[in-house]
């Protein structure tokens, strides 16, 4: 009982709390001021996809539909056709980022090392329209990765 | 019967059966690559090697006949090892481009590689890498992927009998190609491509458009010519991607022609309208389906009340299914109460012979028809019969057709002489001694003679009748033109014929009715009158009709003249049945939905406006047909054959007429890769044959100083028509051929099917 009165009179618990605060004032902070500061991304993080290009800058994708086949959330849509010289032509390569579960199966299935999971995650948009990305976007992402040295 | 033990399972088989067939009977699986059901055993790939007890060597299952008490082991460690090595040897040179190869997913080599668990080839891989051949409009050829199974070479030789491709060189240098590497000279039937187990021969129309694992398959009946081939429609998201065959299904036994295999792109065509149009003044305005029906209803009721029921006429096209045709005539006869129902088909010749009759016959006459163009799959049957050692095939035609290779005798005469020559043949049948005596005797004395002819030419029908009179056991095969040419007539879509070819009151003749202004409202279901030469001259009269309704999948030349146009479904978009030239009724199944109505919708909904309820479900309509159509009582809608009351019917003598006084004799050719006005909408078929072309003999060409692709003017009387030229030595000197059924040739053939014309080089 006496102890309780002592604590009550001298606010020891508040002092203890202030002590913790004081202790942390001299420690290195652990919070990041997102979005003003970048957070660290781990090696195996799977973010928004990118598509590799060949030496001529053309996307490496050959339109084999394997990523579309393997995708569990069915968010990849491909349309192909024969080109003027009888080559495989990719008419459409789209990923619905809002449906994607970022499992990385597409990356695993790709026989020509074209589609990859990138590291960026900041794709929040106010509407759903922007979530359907095409091959142009994916190639642009790859360029960004090369420039920023974030690629493989 | 022989007793064979396969993997311990005992089966009894006929002598001459191969181990493979016996294994199939025993339910034992033996991997095969170069074997095909329709082809002779070849034994090239050695994948089907089996062990036979008592024999030190391995045997190929596909070529070895069984003996009594034979014991076969199909699955042992030794065999597995050997088969694995065989596949590994094939994979040395085979490029591993499965992701970009169209066959990826349905490739036999891929399947076998997977089956034998080959993950690494033990030999040095040296994939071939030569350029891909794109010279053929329908078939892409990548010889690097070829495994030399020879299926393509064999089917082109054994079944199609064109021999366009063969093995070139020997040993490791062997490849499949044409003699001296010339461009492919073939019929584009695509049979070689359909049997290729790997991606060496690929469909260019389907090339890279989709992958096999996406496609849904619907079995249906081809909608072009009257052969009634079973096709597998491969589709995804209401888009037809490919038309395939199935060797185990249908009258065609897995054979298709260029039209059926490659002419499907018109179903997906962006030129197809999806909304109905109503003419307002001189302009067409888009309206919804109900709006169009209301317009038809209002105008039709106005015409009926003002001019009477007989002022309404219906023209039904063979594109309609039996069910639709039945409803159409029912609507006309019972709702509108008119007898003016027409189709441009014939009732002079009805089905008699079947594919079986043709194939098993040893004496055939093909008279005045290029059956390999008009009905290609029937053409294959004729070839099967013609190729047999003991068979006699006699062909009468104004030029050499591909049947020349198999015909015992090919009689080529100008049209004017052809009929006279056949008269001689008929006399020889009576016993007169002339140059046809031997042929006539062979024909007369055979068990099952077959006579193939064109049922649309009255003179030809008369000749068929004469043949029937002289040789009573002959099977007549009228090579009908369109998919349901026979069915719509059976369903009573013919002037003066109720369903089941029962005679009824005749309406006014179509031509007379329009000319004399007796017909005020014309409803054309699917027919393209504008390209029919018989009606070329009255086209402008159609503008004066109070109501002119056209339904067609495309905005056709006829639709342009109409007041109301309703886009309708093609054969891939509806259920129903077609009756082919054998009289065989086969069901088709809806594969895709392009968002357009069918002819059935149009009729049923229109009847509803008139206060009559017609059944909509296929089953219900079929029940009605089985009650009202005596021919179809108890018919099997999946391949049953209808028996007809007569074979040919023609009154009196028909005279062969040839108009004009020119130097050259013109006769109608059968459309190259086309089947009437509909297939012209196919981009791919039109790449090969997109416009009517005059075919001319090289000697005549020299005299006229023309080469391929020049233009010639045909002059008859005061009229001149200009067409492109193709010089071909199969044509007789002094004769020229030109296809009918093109808009450009309709005015010329209005003068007559056979003409004497003058030719002038067009500069």
TrEMBL record, chain A:
NDH-1 shuttles electrons from NADH, via FMN and iron-sulfur (Fe-S) centers, to quinones in the respiratory chain. The immediate electron acceptor for the enzyme in this species is believed to be ubiquinone. Couples the redox reaction to proton translocation (for every two electrons transferred, four hydrogen ions are translocated across the cytoplasmic membrane), and thus conserves the redox energy in a proton gradient. [4Fe-4S] cluster 1 binds at residues 61, 64, 67, 110. Its EC number is 7.1.1.-. It comes from Deferribacter autotrophicus. The gene is nuoI. Belongs to the complex I 23 kDa subunit family. [4Fe-4S] cluster 2 binds at residues 71, 100, 103, 106. HAMAP family: NDH1_NuoI (MF_01351). Binds 2 [4Fe-4S] clusters per subunit. This is NADH-quinone oxidoreductase subunit I. Residues 49-81, 91-120 form the 4Fe-4S ferredoxin-type domain. Pfam families: Fer4_7 (PF12838). One of its GO terms (cellular component) is plasma membrane. It comes from the Bacteria. It is a peripheral membrane protein. It catalyses: a quinone + NADH + 5 H(+)(in) = a quinol + NAD(+) + 4 H(+)(out). Its cofactor is [4Fe-4S] cluster. Its main location: membrane. The keyword Methyltransferase does not apply. Keywords: 4Fe-4S, Cell membrane, Iron, Iron-sulfur, Membrane, Metal-binding, NAD, Oxidoreductase, Quinone, Repeat, Translocase, Ubiquinone. It is found in: Cell membrane. NDH-1 is composed of 14 different subunits. Subunits NuoA, H, J, K, L, M, N constitute the membrane sector of the complex. One of its GO terms (molecular function) is iron ion binding.
TrEMBL record, chain B:
Keywords: 2Fe-2S, 4Fe-4S, Iron, Iron-sulfur, Membrane, Metal-binding, NAD, Quinone, Repeat, Translocase, Ubiquinone. Residues 137-165, 176-206 form the 4Fe-4S ferredoxin-type domain. Residues 1-78 form the 2Fe-2S ferredoxin-type domain. It comes from the Bacteria. Residues 215-271 form the 4Fe-4S Mo/W bis-MGD-type domain. Its cofactor is [2Fe-2S] cluster; [4Fe-4S] cluster. One of its GO terms (molecular function) is 2 iron, 2 sulfur cluster binding. The keyword Translocase applies. GO terms for biological process: ATP synthesis coupled electron transport. It holds the Pfam family Molybdop_Fe4S4. One of its GO terms (cellular component) is membrane. Residues 78-117 form the 4Fe-4S His(Cys)3-ligated-type domain. It is found in: Membrane. NDH-1 shuttles electrons from NADH, via FMN and iron-sulfur (Fe-S) centers, to quinones in the respiratory chain. The immediate electron acceptor for the enzyme in this species is believed to be ubiquinone. Couples the redox reaction to proton translocation (for every two electrons transferred, four hydrogen ions are translocated across the cytoplasmic membrane), and thus conserves the redox energy in a proton gradient. Belongs to the complex I 75 kDa subunit family. This is 2Fe-2S iron-sulfur cluster binding domain-containing protein. It comes from Deferribacter autotrophicus. The lineage of its organism: Bacteria, Pseudomonadati, Deferribacterota, Deferribacteres, Deferribacterales.
């Amino acid at each position: 009982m006496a102890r309780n009165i002592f604590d009550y009179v001298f606010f020891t618990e508040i002092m203890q709390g202030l002590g913790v605060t004081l202790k942390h004032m001299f420690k290195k902070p652990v919070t990041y001021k997102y979005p003003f500061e970048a957070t660290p991304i781990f090696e195996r993080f799977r973010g928004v996809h990118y598509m590799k290009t060949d030496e001529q800058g053309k996307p490496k994708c050959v339109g084999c539909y394997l990523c579309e086949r393997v995708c569990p959330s069915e968010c990849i849509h491909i349309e192909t056709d024969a080109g003027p010289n009888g080559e495989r032509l990719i008419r459409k390569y789209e990923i619905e980022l809002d449906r994607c579960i970022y499992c990385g199966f597409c990356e695993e299935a790709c026989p020509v090392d074209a589609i990859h999971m990138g590291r960026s995650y900041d794709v929040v948009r106010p509407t759903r329209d922007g979530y359907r990305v095409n091959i142009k976007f994916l190639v642009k992402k790859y360029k960004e990765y090369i420039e920023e040295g974030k690629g493989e | 019967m022989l007793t064979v033990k396969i993997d311990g399972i005992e089966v009894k088989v006929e002598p001459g059966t191969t181990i493979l067939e016996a294994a199939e009977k025993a339910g034992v699986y033996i991997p095969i690559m170069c074997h095909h059901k329709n082809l002779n055993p070849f034994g090239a790939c050695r994948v089907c090697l089996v062990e036979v007890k008592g024999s030190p060597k391995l045997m190929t299952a596909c070529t070895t006949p069984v003996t009594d008490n034979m014991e076969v082991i199909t699955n042992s460690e030794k065999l597995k090892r050997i088969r694995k090595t065989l596949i590994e040897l094939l994979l040395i040179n085979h490029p591993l481009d499965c992701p970009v190869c169209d066959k990826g997913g349905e490739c036999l080599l891929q399947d076998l590689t997977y089956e034998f668990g080959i993950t690494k080839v033990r030999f040095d891989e040296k994939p071939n890498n030569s350029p891909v051949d794109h010279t053929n409009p329908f078939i892409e050829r990548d010889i690097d992927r070829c495994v030399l199974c020879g299926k393509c070479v064999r089917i082109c030789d054994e079944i199609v009998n064109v021999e366009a491709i063969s093995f070139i060189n020997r040993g490791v240098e062997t490849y499949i190609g044409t003699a001296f590497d010339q461009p492919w000279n073939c019929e584009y039937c695509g049979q070689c491509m359909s049997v290729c187990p790997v991606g060496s021969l690929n469909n260019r129309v389907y090339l890279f458009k989709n992958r096999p694992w996406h496609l849904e398959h619907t079995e249906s009946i081809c909608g072009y010519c009257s052969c009634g081939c079973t096709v597998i429609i491969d589709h995804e998201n209401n888009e037809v991607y490919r038309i395939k065959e199935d060797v185990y299904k249908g009258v065609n036994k897995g054979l298709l022609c260029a039209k059926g295999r490659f002419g499907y792109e018109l179903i997906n065509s962006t030129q197809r309208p999806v909304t109905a149009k109503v003419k307002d003044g001189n302009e067409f305005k888009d309206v919804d389906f109900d709006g169009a029906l209301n317009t038809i209803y209002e105008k039709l009721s106005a015409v009926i009340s003002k001019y009477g029921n007989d002022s309404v006429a219906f023209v039904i096209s063979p594109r309609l299914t039996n069910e639709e045709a039945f409803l159409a005539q029912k609507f006309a006869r019972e709702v509108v109460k008119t007898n003016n129902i027409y189709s441009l088909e014939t009732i002079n010749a009805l089905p008699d012979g079947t594919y079986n009759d043709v194939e098993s016959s040893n004496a055939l006459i093909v008279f005045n028809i290029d059956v390999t163009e008009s009905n290609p799959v029937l053409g294959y049957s004729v070839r099967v019969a013609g190729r047999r050692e003991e068979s006699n095939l006699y062909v009468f035609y104004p030029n050499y057709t591909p049947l020349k290779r198999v015909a015992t005798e090919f009689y080529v005469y100008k049209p004017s002489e052809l009929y006279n020559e056949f008269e001689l043949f008929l006399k020889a049948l009576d016993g007169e001694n002339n140059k046809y005596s031997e042929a006539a005797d062979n024909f007369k004395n055979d068990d099952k003679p077959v006579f193939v002819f064109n049922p649309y030419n009255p003179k030809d029908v008369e000749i068929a009748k004469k043949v029937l009179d002289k040789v009573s056991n002959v099977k007549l095969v009228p090579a009908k033109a369109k998919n349901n040419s026979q069915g719509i007539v059976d369903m009573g879509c013919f002037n003066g014929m109720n369903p089941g070819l029962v005679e009824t009151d005749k309406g006014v003749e179509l031509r007379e009715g329009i000319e004399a202004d007796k017909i005020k409202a014309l409803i054309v279901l699917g027919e393209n009158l504008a390209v029919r030469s018989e009606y070329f001259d009255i086209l402008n009269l159609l503008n004066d009709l109070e109501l002119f309704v056209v339904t067609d999948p495309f905005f056709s030349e006829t639709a342009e003249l109409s007041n109301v146009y309703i886009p309708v479904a093609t054969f891939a978009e509806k259920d129903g049945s077609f009756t082919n030239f054998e009289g065989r009724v086969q069901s088709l199944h809806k594969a895709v939905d392009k968002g357009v109505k069918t002819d059935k919708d149009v009729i049923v909904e229109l009847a509803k406006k008139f206060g009559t309820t017609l059944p909509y479900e296929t089953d219900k309509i079929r029940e009605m047909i089985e009650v009202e159509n005596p021919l179809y009582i108890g018919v099997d809608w999946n391949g049953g054959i209808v028996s007809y009351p007569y074979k040919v019917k023609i009154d009196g003598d028909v005279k062969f007429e040839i108009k004009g006084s020119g130097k050259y004799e013109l006769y109608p050719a059968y459309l190259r890769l086309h089947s009437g006005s509909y297939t012209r909408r196919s981009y791919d078929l039109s790449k090969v044959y997109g416009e009517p072309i005059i075919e001319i003999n090289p000697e005549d060409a020299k005299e006229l100083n023309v080469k391929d692709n020049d233009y010639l003017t045909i002059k008859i009387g005061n009229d001149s028509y200009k067409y492109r030229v193709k010089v071909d030595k199969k044509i007789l000197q002094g004769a020229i051929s030109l296809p009918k059924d093109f808009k450009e040739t309709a005015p010329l053939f209005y003068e007559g099917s056979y003409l004497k014309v003058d030719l002038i080089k067009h500069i």
